[in-house]
Design a protein that fits this description.
The chain has helices spanning 16-27, 34-47, 55-62, 93-102, 106-122, 132-136, 150-163, 170-186, 208-222; strands at residues 5-9, 30-33, 67-71, 77-81, 84-85, 125-129, 142-147, 199-202. It is of the alpha/beta class and 225 residues long. It binds 2'-deoxycytidine-5'-monophosphate (DC).
Length: 225
């Protein structure tokens, strides 16, 4: 059977994961947060005290790397590294920057490509990331490039961190977002960019429900549900 796939790409903090998860829930599709997979590689790098910017230190860690993806009964994605649940560890501030660094290494991207494609072969998926529509699933049934002004993204990220009880500061969050955007857009290997056939959705002026509605109508235009 041919499975359906929806690719959602865009910069950090555009609301991709929340929206993609809700969209998947509405459609009964599997939600795949690919950033979480890169983050899991970064945790391995952290465990091994390797330098995430040095391919010579990172590449050897890929051999035999055991990453698994699981789902809670409520559909929340969990990441396992060598059998250990690292779902909380991957959200640490330090890991965000490291994930961006390891994701610039072509060998890391190649290693994760099959892993991601296999998930889309086996289920209907809503997959979010940076290169899903351009590289991972170029044949996706629907491609959306989700974005918002950096300030709006920083505001949302700040709220998210505060809700998690983490201390945060607007200027620092905004600066982090801009730095990660730059890193993700300027890496030579599969940089963040909108696929030519992706529909742009700017959520700067939209709340969550409005964004979800806009997403759903885009999906309904492209696939019969
Ligand atoms: O979406 P996120 O913030 O959890 O992603 C963490 C890092 O992983 C991000 O800085 C870029 C990288 N990434 C990527 O290169 N390709 C993807 N498909 C997903 C994430």
């Amino acid at each position: 059977m041919n499975h359906k796939s929806i690719a959602i790409d865009g910069p950090a903090g555009a609301g991709k994961s929340t929206l993609a998860r809700k969209l998947a829930e509405k459609l009964g599709f599997l939600y795949v947060d690919t950033g979480a997979i890169y983050r899991t590689v970064a945790v391995k790098v952290l465990w091994e005290k390797a330098d995430p910017a040095d391919p010579a230190q990172v590449i050897p860690l890929l051999e035999g790397l055991e990453i698994h993806i699981g789902y809670d009964s409520d559909g929340v994605q969990r990441m396992y590294l060598e059998g250990e649940d690292v779902s909380a560890a991957i959200r640490k501030h330090k890991v965000s920057g490291m994930a961006s660094q390891v994701s610039a290494i072509p060998e890391v991207r190649a290693f994760l490509l099959d892993f991601q494609r296999k998930l889309a072969r086996e289920s209907n998926v809503v997959m979010d990331g940076r290169d899903i529509g351009t590289v991972v699933l170029p044949q996706a049934d629907v491609k959306i490039f989700l974005t918002a002004a950096p300030e709006a993204r920083a505001k949302r990220r700040l709220l998210e961190l505060e809700q998690r009880g983490q201390e945060a500061n607007f200027d620092r969050v905004l600066q982090d977002i801009k730095e990660r955007d730059w890193q993700d857009e300027h890496r030579p290997s599969a940089p963040l960019r909108r696929a030519e056939d992706a529909t742009l959705l700017d959520t700067t002026q939209l709340n969550l429900d409005q964004s979800l509605e806009a997403l759903l109508s885009l999906v309904k235009e492209k696939i019969a549900l």
